[in-house]
Amino acid sequence: MSEEQEGIDRAPDDGRTRAIVVGPYLSRGPASLSRDPEARLAEAVGLAQAIDLDIVADIPVTLSEVRPATYLGKGKVEEIGETVREQEAGLVSMDCQLSPVQQRNLEKAWGAKVIDRTGLILEIFGQRARTKEGALQVELAHLAYQKSRLVRSWTHLERQRGGFGFLGGPGETQIETDRRLIEERMRRIEHDLDKVKRTRGLHRKTRRDVPYPVVALVGYTNAGKSTLFNRLTRAEVLAQDMLFATLDPTLRQIRLPHGARVLLSDTVGFISDLPTMLVSAFRATLEEVTLADVILHVRDVSHEDSEAQARDVEAILEELGLKGEAEGRIIEVWNKIDSLDAGRLEAMRIAARGFDPQRRPALVSALTGEGLDDLLSRIENLLAASRTTLSLEVGPADGQGLAWLHAHVEVLSRQTREDGGSRLVVRVAPERVDEVRRRYGASPESDG
């Protein structure tokens, strides 16, 4: 058995792999200015715990430069190697992007499996994907990552149940393959994804034919999106204090204060240094966001790195082509105010009042429900601003016309006339206004 395989097999009595998390952060550069190293390391530990590793040590490392061979300096490599042996760790998670050569050299030096940030996030996504599309997208990203690792050594292609086998199991027996096999598999997945996307496109078109606007939740991972989703929809979406608890998009219908119905969409959490291959792989999943009528950017304002996390989310929205175009339909939701002391909460309220009314953040606690009524009113007002309110009449014999209205526009009120016909006030999406006016001779509602 190889030294590396021995490292992989060492595990505590409960079967979990003993792991060490190393946070090697440069002392200068953009990241050093914007993010707190302790918070970055805590996040790296959270990522490792998300796949149920037994974290036996977390080690911060301040770097003046990156070494081409091992990323870290020689002395630090030896020091961490001592800890690996003392703790009988089978895996070291490096919170950085390693080249294939750096990864291999560190594995030889430490006698343990080494994964970098990309590999760890891929492993988490591999375990979390539930839908067919999610699983295909993760596998495609994983293959692209593995393809980049084919440096004088072969890698396995066996799909592991609940992940990709970075952490052990039968897949660790290396199966000889080559780039051609990987590329063939990637082409097959891309073909399957095209079919899934076409099907989802049809579903989305069907939803567009329904009158309900879409409200999408976005935010940094663990910002409380799923808790907020559950509170608003009374659903039971997985909501845990765990990074990437939600991966596949979830849709539920909710009612706004004046009775209008909307579709609420929960999406995968964003994260700093999200591998480019994952951003592109999940672009289709995030299309739900690009098509949303309202986007709720949920922030954990109790987190010490809340500002940096917000910038990371905005950067990904910009990469999706949303930042400028969606400016008017984004509401910032400052979540977890229940975790703030009275002084910090008051400071947050004062800060929020400093924003222009259209851009003012909504302060909420998804856990207790505080502030959610105000948030729902904000959503309703934003939707109303982009839709036209019309008054129209439907004859007593036009049951089909009445059914069409209920299926394609928001019916805000309906009064039955003496002759059995109906007078309705409806709210209509911009693309349907002309059609409704032609069909029903509708006029603008003065109080709408």
UniProtKB/TrEMBL annotation:
Cofactor(s) required for function per UniProt: Mg(2+)
Binding site residues for Mg(2+): S226, T246
InterPro entries: G_HFLX_dom (IPR030394), GTP-bd (IPR006073), GTP-bd_M (IPR032305), GTPase_HflX (IPR016496), GTPase_HflX_N (IPR025121), GTPase_HflX_N_sf (IPR042108), HflX_C (IPR045498), P-loop_NTPase (IPR027417)
Any Pfam family the entry gives: GTP-bdg_M
Gene Ontology cellular component terms for the protein in this record: cytoplasm
Molecular function as annotated in GO: GTP binding; GTPase activity; metal ion binding; ribosome binding
UniProt entry keywords in alphabetical sequence: Cytoplasm, GTP-binding, Magnesium, Metal-binding, Nucleotide-binding
Location of the Hflx-type G domain: 213-387
Function comment: GTPase that associates with the 50S ribosomal subunit and may have a role during protein synthesis or ribosome biogenesis.
Subunit structure: Monomer. Associates with the 50S ribosomal subunit.
Protein name (record): GTPase HflX
